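Reader question, answered in our methods column.
A reader sent in the components of a multi-part assembly and asked whether the whole thing could be modeled at once rather than chain by chain. We filled in our standard form and ran it. Here is what they sent:
COMPLEX SIZE: two components
ENTRIES:
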Amino acid sequence: MDQTLQKALDQLDQASAAVRLAVQNLANAPGGAEAAGDAAHALSGGAIDPFVFRFAIFVLAIFVGYYVVWSVTPALHTPLMAVTNAISSVIVVGSLLAVGISASGIATGFGFVALMLVSVNIFGGFLVTQRMLAMYKKKDK
Amino acid sequence: MNANFASFLYLVSGVLFIMALRGLSHPTTSRQGNLYGMIGMGIAIATTLALAVPSASGFGLIVLGLAIGGGVGAITARRIAMTSMPQLVAAFHSLVGLAAVMVAAAAIYAPESFGIGTNGDIHAQALIEMSLGVAIGAITFTGSVIAFLKLDGRMSGKPIMIGGRHIINAVLGVALIVLIVLLVATEAKLVFWLIVAASLLLGVLLIIPIGGADMPVVVSMLNSYSGWAAAALGFTLGNLALIITGALVGSSGAILSYIMCKGMNRSFISVILGGFGGETAAATDDGIERTVKQGSADDAAYLMMNAQKVIIVPGYGMAVAQAQHALREMADKLKANGVDVRYAIHPVAGRMPGHMNVLLAEANVPYDEVFELEDINSEFAQADVAYVIGANDVTNPSARDDKSSPIYGMPILDVDKARTCLFVKRSLGSGYAGIDNTLFYKDGTMMLLGDAKKMTEEIVKAMDH
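And here is the structure of the entire assembly that came back:
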């Protein structure tokens, strides 16, 4: 089990490296992403709803989460909760849209409240995780 | 910024979040992981601002919101006591839940800014995703508030049972589905707020009947919910970072809930239905007078100083008494005397997953002296002393031996196999599960009655003699 897990995680690391490389390439050649997207769209004949792709990513991410979280050492389960809490504040992107570009005053208000709430989480979550992790020390040899 | 390029950046931040969790596989890589998480969040925010450039006044509001929230968050993170970590995490979950509701509300009032249609003509698909997000978010919000109140002691940890609550919950669940269908059909704001209200009520009703000892499951479950709420809104916004993160957090919380349930040998359903830990089990009251051996701090100090191997078993009582620093001092004295000292942690010790590990780390206990149940349980047979401080049910031998016990089948730490078991406890009452601990009456057990911190400090003093 452990070996397969390790293998899966190695593959994950490779995949993430590949993604970073791809992004670098894209940054050098603007319009590349568009071309890639167009190609995919053309391949599917434009018949597949983007929802399907999002859902595929969602399902795969659940599996990635499953394997990654099982490999978290039980000693770090509290920091795990704190950090998952911090990253779920990425919902901030929604509040930024509402505050930044919304035409409706009500929506801006809701967005602003949401923005304040998640900012507490972003800063609080990451900093408290950092504080906890700094406490885990090895035996003095 | 090009929308496709922005999607790639969101993907990058999703991958960075995965690496943040991956880092937690070992304490040495964890700090780096946390840094990845922060970078990922930075990228997500910067990308959003570059993609949808805010107006000048909007930008001002954003800076203001970030500053207020960020300031509160940073101060809280700095000041919070490590013993209050379960409450803090519950409070943070409630914020994510409420934020999800607010974002969905903003989206329904200004759908154009989110690219999901126009006012009065929002895509049906977006409405379904949004209502799921808002329902889960609202349940997370009130559920976490109740969990926070219970963990913080502002509300009794005892389960509160309302008559016919299963029926009320079922009715609310059905009502939610009907309301979601109505929202898709009419897109009325009133229906949206009815969904919010029903979900808020459901969140309260779901958590109120769950007792204090089951809080590790509840906190993990709410963690999972906050993830699913984020993912649902991710679909609405078509945002990869949100979808990936929501899935990660959702499965993470689900796994933690599973581990906690397994640690108590209870099914997830029975925890959710609640009511555990209220009644006292009558089965153990067989009328036989049983004797308990009591000891003093001096006895304990003598026993441990002359031992070769001591295993310390901390529980929630250690957190309540803030005894972790005194405990470390005691362990230092023992180590200086050549005693092999280890710590054994039960998966459900404390009020959240990993609670004990954080407290021991705070007291500067090296993490390589702290062991999980399955790694250390066989060692109790070779230990001279097991020092149980603030734990109870997780050491009860009836869970292993007595088929009629309500906690039968729950994995326990075999402290009764050590030559002597020193059991620090305030009184001879039962634990949170309301079950009598047969360990107290065993020959090898010596009860040290008193406050966990005071008793440990007295033992440290006695060791100097």
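What stands out: Chain A is about 80% helix and 0% strand. Confidence is low (pLDDT under 50) at residues 26-37 of chain A.
Send us your own complexes using the same form.
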